[in-house]
Design goal:
Layout: H1 2-11, H2 33-37, H3 41-44, H4 54-57, H5 94-110, H6 116-123, H7 129-138, H8 144-157, H9 166-177, H10 185-196, E1 215-217, E2 241-242, E3 246-248, E4 260-266, E5 269-274, H11 275-281, E6 283-288, E7 291-298, E8 303-304, E9 306-308, E10 327-334, E11 337-342, E12 347-349, H12 359-363, E13 370-371, E14 374-377, H13 378-384, E15 389-391, E16 430-435, E17 441-445, H14 446-454, E18 459-461, E19 464-469, E20 472-478, E21 484-486, E22 490-493, H15 494-500, E23 505-507
Parallel strand pairs: 2-6, 5-15, 17-23
Antiparallel strand pairs: 1-10, 3-15, 4-5, 4-14, 6-7, 7-8, 7-9, 9-13, 10-11, 11-12, 16-17, 16-22, 18-19, 19-20, 20-21
């Protein structure tokens, strides 16, 4: 069957995949060290001091600064996609409604471009361009069907397509234009996607809290292995790492001092998750400080987050075989952000926000709370947290992990469509995202915050205290009893935080 051959072919193409394949066959990911921290690696990897300095390994130097003393923020690029075309409303014309599934069948089953494509173009209904971009995800790269789809998109919408990146450029244009989808769009999209991966079918729910226009294929299939399975996915997925073996800090001598870790502290227990291991697995289910957590790492967003998965009430998982939620990577993306799901209920969970968006958990309005995650060099993290543990070199499953699996894959910016961009910062500038006690999202520019804090100046933003922690920064708020509480902050690229929190304020620009 043509679609099966197509899937095998596309899975071997890494330039548009959410995870490419390392030399040992492991799934890998993207982003380099300097981009995550917002500074060069050299500036972060000073030699260990003779004595432990204050503030988690950071020397307080120079005079105290104010916001006015900070370096000006870099500005991002303003992209112009032109004015959106006029669009139809209501159901598709019956002839067009019948033409779309016929066209798909001819294309994916036989590799043939039928006359129905001309019917789609002649309809003038630009809403159907959303589905053309879905097809371009699978039929591009110089194939005859791909060329015809590019031409059809341009004729239907009047928007130009970059021939070197037809799917990316056409989808970026559609997201920026924000054209509505036609009523049967999800039905057509579901039918197309489950030809590739039948395991996605329960995730494609109508009426769910997902903007399906922005959902795309990440280049891998669903991770549906049971909890604790140490084996790679036979079909080609990004395999989560469950309950990894850890060692003390001395046992982490295998990891370079200047390499990055994602540090988490819960109830006084600290743990470092090496970036190279997280690039392979992109998801960890673990226990720390007596709490059950799941840590997704969106390599495309430069964002590791830690969600508490032990807070659901009895019965909320329904007939699930698991006592607590188990997070997995679906193989789908939404605006260059991985889409994770809960294994037992097949409920999609918004990786960035933590709210369930499909399935039984969405019906119950489940939102997973977060613990803070600090992005730091390994040397500085263990100085700041000498009793930390770190994931073992082989993850406890006997695997080998390259120190730099990605090899600069995303150095030139997002490789998946994100649409229009908030130009207040460059797309891959690093920010610490936090929600204030009043519910206002705020992005803290990491480089500026470090500059201020390293001068000895305090930093408080709308009830949130920002402090140095090893190489990174962490946010705290005041709890109900007046105690200091982890605010659940995490670092990410600006494009990711600003598109999932479009009402965000930016420090220091807005303060």
């Amino acid at each position: 069957m043509l679609m099966k051959r197509l899937v095998v072919s596309l899975l071997s193409v890494s330039f548009v995949a959410a995870a490419c394949q390392a030399s040992d066959g492991s799934a890998t990911s993207e982003t380099n060290d300097a981009e995550i921290t917002g500074e060069t690696t050299d500036s972060l990897s000073a030699a260990p001091p003779a004595e432990d300095p204050p503030n988690g390994g950071n020397e307080i130097t120079g005079e105290m600064l104010t916001i006015a003393d900070l370096d000006p923020l870099p500005r991002g690029e303003v992209l112009d996609f032109g004015d959106a075309p006029d669009f139809n409303e209501g159901p598709l014309d019956p002839e067009l409604e019948a033409a779309i599934p016929r066209f798909v069948t001819a294309l994916v089953d036989n590799g043939r471009v039928s006359d129905d494509l001309q019917t789609i173009v002649d309809s003038g209904d630009v809403r159907v361009a959303w589905f053309l971009t879905d097809l371009l995800r699978f039929f591009q790269g110089g194939s005859v069907p791909g060329v015809r789809l590019e031409e059809a998109f341009e004729e239907l919408t009047g928007g130009a397509v970059d021939g070197s990146q037809p799917w990316n450029s056409s989808t970026n244009r559609m997201i920026a234009w924000d054209l509505p989808a036609y009523p049967s769009y999800l039905e057509h999209k579901r039918d197309l996607f489950i030809r590739i991966e039948p395991g996605w079918e329960p995730l494609f729910e109508d009426g769910s809290d997902v903007d399906w226009r922005h959902v795309s294929w990440g280049g891998v299939l669903i991770d549906d292995r049971p909890l604790g399975d140490p084996n790679p996915c036979a079909s080609g997925c990004i395999p989560a790492l469950d309950d990894p073996v850890v060692t003390d800090a001395a046992g982490g001598a295998w990891y370079p001092d200047d390499a990055l870790v994602f540090g988490v502290v819960i109830d006084g227990e600290a743990r470092a998750y090496p970036k190279n291991i997280m690039e392979i697995h992109e998801m960890v289910n673990d226990t720390l400080g007596g709490r059950r957590i799941a840590i997704p790492y969106c390599t495309l967003c430069g964002s590791a987050q830690a969600y508490f998965t032990d807070e659901l009430a009895d019965g909320q998982l329904g007939d699930s075989e698991f006592d607590q939620p188990v997070f997995r990577t679906s193989g789908l993306l939404i605006r260059s952000n991985k889409m994770m799901y809960e294994l037992g209920t097949t409920s999609l969970i918004d990786t960035f926000l933590g709210n369930a968006t499909t399935g039984p958990l969405a019906e119950q309005g489940v939102v997973f709370n977060q613990a803070g995650v600090v992005t730091s060099t390994w040397a500085d993290w263990r100085r700041a947290h000498p009793n930390t543990t770190i994931v073992a070199e082989d993850g406890g499953i006997g695997r080998s992990y390259p120190i730099d699996p990605l090899r600069g894959r995303d150095d030139d910016g997002p490789i998946f469509p994100i649409g229009s961009i908030d130009p207040r910062l460059p797309v891959q500038e690093s920010v610490l995202g936090v929600i204030t006690p009043d519910g206002q999202p705020v992005a803290i520019h990491v480089a500026s915050a470090r500059q201020l804090l390293l001068s000895g100046s305090p930093l408080e933003v709308d009830g949130v205290t920002i402090e140095l922690d090893a190489t990174g920064i962490r946010a705290f708020v005041e709890g109900d009893d007046g105690e200091r509480v982890d605010a659940g902050s995490h670092q990410s690229f600006w494009f990711a935080w600003s598109q999932f929190e479009p009402a965000t304020q930016l420090w220091p620009e807005d303060f």
